[in-house]
Amino acid sequence: MPEVLKASFAVEFPFTRSLGPVQSAFLTGLRERVVLGVRTSDGRTLVPPVEYDPVTAEEIRDLVEVAPTGTVTTWAWNHTPRRDQPLDTPFAWALVRLDGADTALLHALDAPGPDAVHTGMRVRVRWAEERTGAITDIACFEPYDGGPDDGGPDGGGPAGPADHEGLPRGATGEFEDPITGIVARARLDYTYSPGRAQTAYINALADRRNVGERCPSCRKVYVPPRGACPTCGVATSEQVEVGPRGTVTTFCIVNIKAKNLDIEVPYVYAHIALDGADLALHGRIGGIPYDQVRMGLRVEPVWTERARYPDHYRPTGEPDADYDTYKELV
Amino acid sequence: MTRDLPVRDIAVVAFAQTDHRRTSEELSEVEMLMPVLHRVLAQTGLKTADIGFTCSGSSDYLAGRAFSFTLALDGVGAWPPISESHVEMDGAWALYEAWTKLLTGDADTALVYSYGKSSPGPLRDVLTRQLDPYYVAPLWPDSVALAALQAQALVDAGDTDEPALAAVAARSRTDATLNSHAQLRGSVPQGEYVVRPLRTGDCPPIGDGAAAVILAAGERARELCDRPAWIRGIDHRIEAHGLGVRDLTDSPSTRLAAEKAGAFERPVDTAELHAPFTSQEVVLRKALKLDGGVRVNLSGGALAANPVMAAGLIRIGEAAARIHRGESDRALAHATSGPCLQQNLVAVLEGDPR
Ligand SMILES: [Zn+2]
Predict the structure, then answer these.
(1) In which band, very low, low, confident or very high, does the pLDDT at B26 lie, cut at 50, 70 and 90?
(2) Which of A61, A70, A212, A245 is the Cys-Cys partner for A98 at CB 3.0 to 4.6 Å?
(3) Is the distance from CB of A41 to CB of A56 less than 8 angstroms?
(4) Of B28, B121, B142, which has the smallest distance from its Cβ to A82's Cβ?
């Protein structure tokens, strides 16, 4: 068996996400170096805050400020940071219960080594220099040798609550120019392999041949082959050369120009049943005015220099195919 | 306590899986899946056209392609149209959907399959995309890092230590020597820290694989299988999204699912736990109140082979296969999804009395 093909590709997406009132306040607060939690009806303070009580499912909106200092509740030493993680030097992942909160926030903890980290250790927020209203506005946590932040000159932010039970001081979620949405960027890199059947198809295309596969059970020829007959649910195996000529089974006229496409509109995109194939593939029709393309039109592929698949299909000049010869493929 | 029992007896009557491997790049998903589908059908003599309902589990993020499951459908003979559904979850949840479909009486047989090729992408990073997109995913905490936080919480609580975790790994991989499908078998060194306190030996192998199960109701199950594995109860529960809200040393959702599935009504003799990390077996044993008398993960479990999206269904399949072979009379199967055992499914399977 020839070696399967492989190609790398990246999936990249900038999801735009709306924030509800609670998440908006929390992330805007981070921009202003204020950490907000949300108070549940039974008096717990959740940081990071959520819009619904995870226990009762009750809607909660009562924002309170907590301190930028806290205690590690559990941690894990990450000696080889991965791409896009908060720090590019070895660090600890940590769940930190901020002073005034009852739940813990996940973030990175910058420490010289695993021996410098333990559950129960005191830490404080290190703010990112540029803050945009995102969880990464907290650059990381860092070791901190003290009690709840007193809001002193090195406190790194406004004062936290005087004590856990007391009324919150400082911000309560009212900010000028609040953040209402975030863009969550992500990129994942893959190595795609199309498998045995499609590798054979693509390799044949390099020789400008169309090779399908025949189902051993129903004898249908699939092109491009995917390795299985969708009717019989069995592997296809016997290779069959199809085309190069074929018949337009159906088509549409494209009137909107796609981004980065240099084909003039309108143009015709068609399903084409190559001679000998029992499945239509699709391609663009050229060499004929768009309004003269019709079902039954006989076409052949047009290859351009070094192309890996036909650029388009053009009329062969043969008489149109009889509807009965392709009606099963429409 | 009493429990409303299912209105209809439904059993797992067949199970098949691939040999799980680090990579199966020479095969497309459907090419990897098809032999498994053929084997599970052959066990019952059914053809795809005989199946009343088909349900599958997989994830687009593993393949990096939208609607990737539609191509795998070619393998089940989806034309002419069949009654079919898909969950973007482990196949154990597809089995749950198929079970409810059979309960309604709409179908008497169901084919459940799931597959995952982890080889095309960076699995640890891919799995971060299932996390809270506002507060957690932007930090890219990978799957091992999150499991390591849970492991450290267990160590701090005195529930385990590194030698005990190493013993879980060693036992699993020794048991896997009898499982020809497993990816890692026999003595495997505990290795270096990946994210401390977890070492390579505490983490599951990354691999590609698929599994399939056939369910049948009532008399149909007896026709198709000498000793059907009757599903006496099945339930799944979820915990709070925020990791910092949860007690990571416990799994109340597993315990509740087990209770609702009837797991505590009588002892089980066998348990197949979907614990991809050694530390998670510690949590699950506690949540499920499993004592030393229960044989846990004789297949080697997810530490020996963890094809993402199939490993949970495999736990149900392995438990059922033991009942089919007469090696178990009452077995518990567990599947998990999400970070730190966020979602948990428990099924209780029984063979007819002998
Ligand atoms: Zn066929």
Answers:
(1) confident
(2) A70
(3) yes
(4) B142
Task: Give the integer Cα–Cα distance in Å for A205 and A296.
Answer: 24
Which pLDDT score, from 0 to 100, does residue B102 have?
97
Query: Which pLDDT value is given to residue A173?
Result: 74
Between CA B261 and CA B216 the distance in angstroms is: 19
At residue A1, the pLDDT reads 56
- Please say whether the beta carbons of A197 and B28 come within 8 A: yes
In sequence order, which residues have a C-beta less than 8 Å from that of residue B86 and are 6 or more positions away?
Answer: B55, B56, B57, B58, B69, B94
Q: How confident is the model at residue A154 (pLDDT cuts 50, 70, 90)?
A: very low
> Which pLDDT score is estimated for A171?
58
C-beta separation of A133 from A30 below 8 A: yes
Look over chain B and give the mean of its residue pLDDT values, rounded to a whole number.
Answer: 95
**B210 at the A interface (CB within 8 A)?**
no
Q: How far is B120 from chain A (nearest CA, A)?
A: 5
**pLDDT, average across residues A126-148:** 94
Residues within 5 Å of ion ligand 1, judged at the Cβ atom: A 215, 217-218, 229, 231-232
Cα A235 to middle of ligand 1, angstroms:
9
- Please state the ipTM of this predicted complex: 0.94
Confidence at A161, pLDDT banded by 50, 70, 90:
very low
CB contact residues (below 8 A), chain A span 197-216, against chain B: 197-198
Q: Cβ of B34 and A235 within 8 Å?
A: yes
**Distance (Å, whole) CA A299 – CA A287:** 10
CA-CA distance, B151 to A76, in Å (whole number)?
8
Closest by Cβ to A54, choosing from B31, B78, B240: B240
pLDDT: is B223 or B68 the higher one? B223
